[in-house]
Each structure stands twice: as structure tokens, then as C-alpha cells.
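Appendix B, record 7
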Amino acid sequence: MPISLKTIWITVAVVLLLIIQYRLWFDDSGVIASRALERQISALQESNDKQSEINRGLMNEVTDLRQGDALLEEIAREDLGLVKEGETFVLFAEPDS
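C-alpha cells (predicted):
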């Protein structure tokens, strides 16, 4: 029983359809890869936004340090425990629990 021309064309069409569907969904430029890239872009954008906020805070601190001594004095007192002449340094310590 010979294979008809119609059967061959249907088989070719199905194979081509399967190839196109594979490329559409699973290829490097397919739907699944595109969605993964969109998620990655979104995560990187969030990270960039957080870093931009941190950078703005640091730039504000740098500007304050360049413009006056108030922030410098505050940092010296809080972080280094420095006191002015004539002042008394008092340290409140939490009791061990």
C-alpha cells in the first residue's frame, strides 16, 4: 500500500508545526526565556533603585560634611566618643541579661 501524497503533506505540515511550536516556547528567544529575562530585569531594577537610594543618602552626607562641621562633630561624638574640653562623658550601658 503506497503512501499517498496527501499523507506526506500532512506529515510535513505537522513536523513544521512542531518545530515552530518548539522554537516559540523553548528556544533561547522563546516565550519561556523572555519571561525569565523579564523577571531578571525586574530584580536588577529593584536592586538599582535600592542602590540609588543609598547613593543619594551618601551624597547628602558628603555634602553636609563639606558644608559644615556639625555633622563631623556629631559623628566624632557618636562613633569615637570624643568630648569637648570642659564636658563630661557619660556612658549608659545596658546590664547583661
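Remarks on this record: The chain has a mean pLDDT of 87. The radius of gyration is 34 Å.
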